[in-house]
Design goal:
The complex is a heterotrimer of chains A (about 575), B (about 350) and C (about 290).
Chain A: H1 20-32, H2 34-38, E1 45-46, H3 54-73, E2 82-84, E3 96-98, H4 99-109, H5 114-141, H6 150-172, H7 177-191, H8 197-205, H9 214-244, E4 258-263, H10 264-289, H11 295-298, H12 317-325, E5 331-333, E6 336-338, H13 340-368, H14 384-404, H15 406-412, H16 417-456, E7 458-465, E8 471-476, H17 480-487, H18 508-525, H19 534-550
Helix pairs in contact in A: 3-5, 3-10, 4-5, 5-6, 5-10, 6-9, 6-13, 7-8, 12-13, 12-14, 14-16
Chain B: H1 2-11, H2 28-31, H3 33-63, E1 69-70, E2 73-74, H4 75-102, E3 108-111, H5 119-136, H6 142-161, E4 185-187, E5 204-209, H7 225-235, E6 237-241, E7 261-265, E8 277-278, E9 284-286, E10 293-295, E11 301-304, E12 313-314, E13 316-318, E14 324-326
Helix pairs in contact in B: 3-4
Chain C: H1 2-13, H2 20-34, H3 44-48, H4 50-64, H5 66-69, E1 76-77, E2 83-85, H6 92-101, H7 123-136, H8 145-148, H9 155-168, H10 170-173, E3 180-181, E4 187-188, H11 196-205, H12 220-235, H13 249-271
Helix pairs in contact in C: 4-7, 6-7, 6-11, 9-12, 11-12
Classes of the chains: A mainly alpha (about 575), B alpha+beta (about 350), C mainly alpha (about 290).
Chain lengths: ~575, ~350, ~290
């Protein structure tokens, strides 16, 4: 590093000559201005909580997908041209199959480590989508999607959708019996589209199903188009995360105005980096020990063959379940056919579900009218309606998922296949509302419990006998930190309509909308339990103190056995060593 | 209204004041040099183990053969996955231990700023944008603006038109199969021709049209490759034989069977899976994909599941040599429904 | 549905009888076997000592089978004309060998299908029973060993058997022969570990809901190839690790979620508080 080269630098480069890494950094900074861009990011704060690691699992699974995927592309031939298999798997030798299938067998049996990479790739995909879903549920439950993070919620929703499409495309590539059956079903779904169905099918498959172009087409979508979009959206997702700074749980010293945690460099980098290797390692173990998609046992795709237990991967399970439990409704009218039995569960339902997921932040915002920024997370119990909604959705998802595996459930648990289907047809309408009510009441009772603890203290488990011989359980006040954490939430306000209670002076459609909003707000919040006011709390403490005084102290201090477990401090008491 | 709302939430004082960040408590590794040394050794051991696992992975690559087994599993895959997983996990656990035990665990505070830009920045941006807009004259010169919009919109047309050759138009392709009058019904895989007397009551034959097994003058298959797959996806059939008394043929179908042998499309009318789960006692045919169930004794009627239409039936006869043949193509389109598909023969 | 209801009505009408189930189930055996009349391969040397064999079989039959199937295997009808135990005329020795040899017969109790269970007769007794039933009317005989023995070393037979297997068998029995669901609580059983002879006999006679695959269409050679394929699969290691039951993506999805739980557990560990020292910062050693 010469002095002349550093004339544009803000500090003389010569001083850093002693450290080669510094020299490299200076060289880069002079060209990229890195110091300004990174000076704040290097010690950027990330709060620590296990639930913040869920999205990271998805991210690292995606990295594993990229690495293993690149390995697979070195041998995979996305062609439906016919060849006779001549590799080392005896059971299929001499059989005609597509090049795609033959090359998948080649990767599995004639490329060392190929089978491992295939299995890791597939397991990573399963984890990727599962982790995205769990991450989405975390964000939803804690209200992390609220302003200013609505756009990141939308990006996340699109990532989930793209992940599922990417997974389906990958599932279809090996051209084995199962993947071909999946495509056959996709063809049926497409054909059910009103008006355009058969045209869309012919354009998709380059003619009649299965044709010989679908695998090359899906391949380019699978290795270029969708991953490109995924990477771009993941990048945007992370940039927004950095820009907004991470949300955090409320607690002593943690407010809407700050973020408390560990610095990016070194703690968070080590933790995130370490977690990457753990996720990678777990996926490697899965790939090594657990068979997934044993394509060699399925055989090449043949439109006249099918296997019992034909299922999609788990993330398509709910669509599969819907298809299975749908009654066979079809309308024949004016010489045309509308197959509700395929169109509704196969196209309308998934789009509707995605729509609800994407629109939720905006719906909730409209009901609450809340335009403030939120960086402190809500405990699920403190948003009972939202939590109950998710619980209902999870139950619906679970039921449909189970319905998608009704044949496996039937054989595994020795049940009647038809009865499971009949049960599911009713259950998807009955169980989610029940779950909703149950979850909401549960949340509200947990809120009550929080207030009880705040006002009357926690249950010590010590039974006191008073002079009259009556028994009572002793309550003691909780620590200040905990009390603050419990009260660090906002009060819900039930919106009662414009101008107080009526909608006079507002034009008719707006008034109707306003009334709807008031109704929704009532349903959303009216039953919630609000945190006690300062006066109430004072009153409660006073009452508790009286009680405390009333209860006979032992040897001058409260001998409740809880002095040293962090529940509360007792003045003048320290541990005897 | 929203103002009111915000007022309501902000005026009520917090019942408990923020006690501030709790005091930092040291870890054993912060105060006990022995614990620190121990943690250091632990982390280094994990990293060292990782190198050993990685090297062992390489050894396994060259020493384990594809046919070797381990507990009846493929030894190669288990070894590669296990060792590589070990190497990765050791790095992961080591790094985490390092961060948990040895790196500083003082929490630090960073202040947030509103996501929105300051008001003056906004004003400046809007002003700059408006200057640019005014410069371009896009508001004034509506002719330029509109013709540009028109040009851009028209450019979309070639974009769509160019996709036309993605595939041919369906026409009535979906309504026909390769079956035709006189074509023999043969067993799938080996093309064995079938006489009625070859089948017993309760028998199922997964069958195909004979043309799939025929060769042209050059000794090449008549239909092959993608064409064969597409033809198979519509023409695959099953032959079943029931007691003639059990069969309840619909009007006009009395002569579609031969001695209780009936032929049905193998392609489910729901979304097109090939079906051959036939219960010989109940005469029910179950689709393994979505469990649509068809009664083959009753013209392929749907008795359960999501399928909306009965299974198409292929009329059968016997040719001069005594082999089973089709007397025509299917009389209705087989497979999943689509918009322009006409009403079915039945119901 | 109507048919099932009819069957269940029949069953409930004769609830007290433990043998109502087999009655229903063996209707098919009666009818299927009947068509084998022309095929009886009764050979010369067999007839030599067949008389005593048949007598022995008849004695066993009268004790163990006649209560449902009638003294001469003619089947028993109830007073209302329903089938109580089906006639065994024409079902052949192969059906007897399969049903009794896999323990499906005698049936312990009526059910949606006769289940595989402990075999109660010795092979000699089964042969005698088979000889007796075959003497009622000609039917498919027990295949010879060279007909059914798996040729796992013949790659052509194995791969050809695979094609027949995927075309005719996987729809019910699944790609790995793990079995699968059928309507109304019935199921196609697992083929793993089933003896070669019984595999052959099942295809030949079509027990219970399974369709028949007669030798005239699916030739003995084809059947043997299928058996070779299945046995070759049993000899093949599970290349990818544990099979997870070989039942397809449902099990895989379950394991993916279980593993996700493990990884989340790792996340909980990563973000958990480490142990705090009891000593205070200044080295306040007591």
């Amino acid at each position: 590093m010469s002095a002349t080269a550093s004339t544009n630098g803000t500090s003389p480069a010569a001083r850093k000559k002693a450290n080669p890494a510094g020299a490299v950094a200076t060289w880069a900074d002079e060209r990229l201005g890195l110091a300004t861009a990174t000076k704040k990011q290097i010690r950027k704060v990330f709060p620590d909580h296990w639930s913040f690691m869920l999205g990271e699992i998805a991210l690292w699974s995606f990295v594993v997908l990229l690495l293993t995927g690149v390995f697979l592309t070195l041998w995979f031939k996305p062609s439906m041209g016919e060849v006779v298999y001549n590799g080392s798997y005896d059971q299929l030798r001499g059989i005609e199959m597509s090049e795609a299938y033959a090359s998948t067998l080649h990767i599995s049996f004639d490329v060392r480590g190929g089978l491992l990479m295939r299995q890791m790739h597939h397991w990573a995909a399963m984890l990727f989508i599962a982790a995205m879903l769990v991450h989405l549920m975390r964000v939803f439950l804690t209200g992390a999607f609220r302003k200013p993070r609505e756009l990141n919620w939308l990006i996340g929703g699109l990532l989930l959708l793209l992940g599922i499409l990417e997974g389906f495309a990958g599932y279809s590539l090996p051209d084995d019996l199962l993947s071909g059956t999946g495509l056959r079903i996709a063809d049926g779904l497409v054909k059910a589209t009103p008006v355009l169905g058969s045209y869309m099918s012919f354009f998709m498959f380059g003619g009649e199903f299965p044709g010989d172009v679908i695998i090359p087409r899906l391949y380019i979508a699978h290795v270029l188009l969708i991953p490109g979009l995924l990477i771009a959206l993941i990048g945007a997702h992370m940039l927004l995360l950095v820009f907004h700074k991470h949300t955090q749980w409320p607690g002593p010293g943690r407010t809407e105005q700050n973020v408390v945690g560990y610095p990016m460099m070194p703690v968070y980098a080590a933790k995130a980096g370490g977690f990457f290797f753990i996720v990678f390692g777990v996926i490697a173990l899965m790939g090594g020990l657990m068979t997934i998609n044993p394509v060699w046992r399925f055989g090449p795709y043949n439109p006249a063959e099918v296997t019992a237990g034909s299922q999609p991967d788990w993330y398509m399970g709910i669509a599969e379940g819907l298809l299975r439990i749908m009654p066979g409704w079809e309308t024949h009218i004016f010489g045309i056919t509308i197959s509700w039995n395929v169109f509704l569960p196969g196209q309308i339902a998934p789009i509707a579900l995605l729509g609800v997921v994407l629109a939720y932040p905006f719906i909730e915002q409209w009901v609450t009218g809340d335009k403030r920024e939120h960086h402190l997370l809500q405990r699920p119990r403190n948003a009972p309606t939202r939590t109950a909604f998710l619980a209902a959705m999870i139950s619906l998802y679970g039921l449909l998922w189970a319905a998608g595996g009704n044949d496996i459930i039937a054989t595994t648990f020795k049940l009647n296949l038809n009865h499971i289907t009949y049960f599911m047809r009713a259950a998807i309408f009955v169980i989610p509302p029940l779950v909703f009510i149950l979850a909401k009441r549960w949340c509200i009772s947990l809120q009550r419990h929080d207030n009880d603890v705040l006002l009357h203290g926690y249950e010590t488990g010590i039974i006191m006998r008073d002079a009259e011989g009556g028994y009572s359980e002793r309550h003691l006040p909780i620590s200040e930190d905990r009390a603050y954490t419990l009260t660090a939430r906002q009060r819900d306000v039930v919106y009662t309509g414009a101008n107080g209670t009526d909608a006079n002076g507002v034009s008719a459609p707006k008034a109707r909308l306003d009334r709807l909003r008031a109704k929704a707000s009532h349903a959303w919040f009216a039953d919630n339990v609000q945190k006690p006011t300062a006066e109430k709390l004072e009153e409660g403490h006073h009452h508790a103190e009286l009680e405390h005084d009333h209860q006979a102290p032992l040897e001058g201090h409260a001998a409740d056995g809880h002095q040293f477990d962090g529940h509360h401090d007792v003045d003048g008491e320290t541990l005897r060593h | 209204m929203t103002d009111q709302h915000e007022l309501a939430t902000t005026t009520v004082a917090e019942p408990i004041p923020d006690p501030g960040l709790p005091e930092h408590l040291p870890r054993p590794t912060d105060v006990d040099p022995a614990a620190e040394k121990r943690a250091e050794r632990q982390v280094a051991t994990l990293f060292g183990l990782s190198s050993i696992f990685a090297l062992l992975t390489c050894v396994a690559y060259f020493t384990i053969d594809g046919d070797d087994t381990f507990l009846d599993m493929g030894a190669q895959n288990v070894a590669f996955g296990g060792l590589l997983g070990g190497a990765l996990l050791c790095i992961g656990f080591g790094a985490i231990q390092w961060s948990r035990k040895l790196m500083s665990d003082h929490e630090i505070v960073e202040y947030r700023h509103s996501a929105s830009s300051p008001e003056e920045d906004r004003t400046e941006a809007v002003a700059a944008f408006e200057t640019g807009l005014a410069d371009s004259g896009i508001a004034r010169r509506s002719l330029v603006r509109n013709s540009l919009l028109g040009a851009l919109a028209t450019l979309g047309l070639p974009g769509i038109v160019f996709l036309r050759d993605l595939g041919p138009l369906p026409g009535d392709t979906l309504a026909h199969t390769v079956w035709k009058k006189g074509m023999r019904v043969v067993q799938d895989v080996d093309g064995a021709e079938i006489k009625p007397s070859d089948m017993v009551i309760g028998q199922l034959v997964n069958a195909e049209p004979a043309i799939f097994f025929e060769e042209n003058a050059e000794g090449e298959p008549e239909i092959h490759g993608a064409e064969l797959q597409a033809a198979k996806a519509k023409a695959a059939v099953i032959l079943v034989r029931m007691h003639p008394n059990d069969i309840k043929p619909a009007k006009g179908r009395e002569n579609w069977g031969v001695d209780g042998i009936l032929c049905y499309s193998k392609i489910c009318t729901h979304v097109g899976c090939p079906i051959s789960l036939w219960e010989q006692q109940t005469h029910h045919l179950l689709c393994p994909c979505h469990q649509s169930t068809f009664d083959l004794a009753d013209n392929g009627k749907v008795v359960f599941g999501p399928a909306g239409r009965h299974l198409p039936q292929l009329p059968l006869a016997v040719d001069d040599e005594g082999y089973l043949i089709a007397t025509s193509d299917f009389t209705e389109p087989v497979g999943p429904s689509y918009w322009e598909r006409n009403r079915s023969d039945l119901t | 549905m109507r048919l099932t209801r009819k069957i269940s009505a029949r069953l409930s009408a004769h609830r007290r009888s433990r043998f109502a189930g087999p009655a229903v189930l063996l209707v098919a055996l009666l009818t299927t076997g009947g068509l084998y009349v022309a095929l009886s391969p009764a050979s010369a040397e067999k007839t030599a000592d067949s008389t005593s064999e048949i007598a022995k079989g008849k004695a066993l039959f009268l004790v163990g089978c006649a209560s449902c199937h009638g003294k001469n295997g003619e089947g028993i009808l109830t007073e209302r004309g329903n089938q109580y135990g089906p006639s065994l005329a024409g079902v052949g020795a192969a059906a007897v060998d399969f049903q009794v040899g896999t323990g499906r017969m005698p049936m312990a109790q009526p059910g949606s299908q006769a289940l595989r269970k402990r075999v109660v007769y010795t092979q000699d007794e089964i042969d005698a029973l088979g000889a007796f039933v075959a003497s009622l009317a000609p039917g498919p005989s027990v295949p010879a060993a060279d007909e059914y023995e798996a040729k796992t070393d013949d790659p052509e037979a194995v791969s050809r058997g695979g094609e027949f297997f995927r075309t005719n068998c996987t729809a019910c029995h699944n790609f790995a022969g793990s079995g699968g669901a059928l309507p109304q609580g019935k199921f196609a059983p697992s083929l793993v570990g089933v003896s070669e002879k019984h595999l052959f006999e099942a295809m030949l006679t079509g027990p219970q809901q399974m369709p028949v695959f007669s030798n005239e269409v699916l030739s003995p050679q084809d059947k043997q190839d299928i058996i070779s394929y299945l046995k070759k699969n049993e000899d093949t290691p599970s290349y990818g690790g544990f099979t997870l039951g070989s039942i397809g993506p449902v099990a895989e999805g379950m394991f993916a979620w279980l593993t996700l739980a493990v990884v989340v557990g790792a996340g909980i560990w990563i973000t958990s508080q480490t142990a705090r020292s009891k000593k205070t910062k200044k080295g306040d050693v007591a």
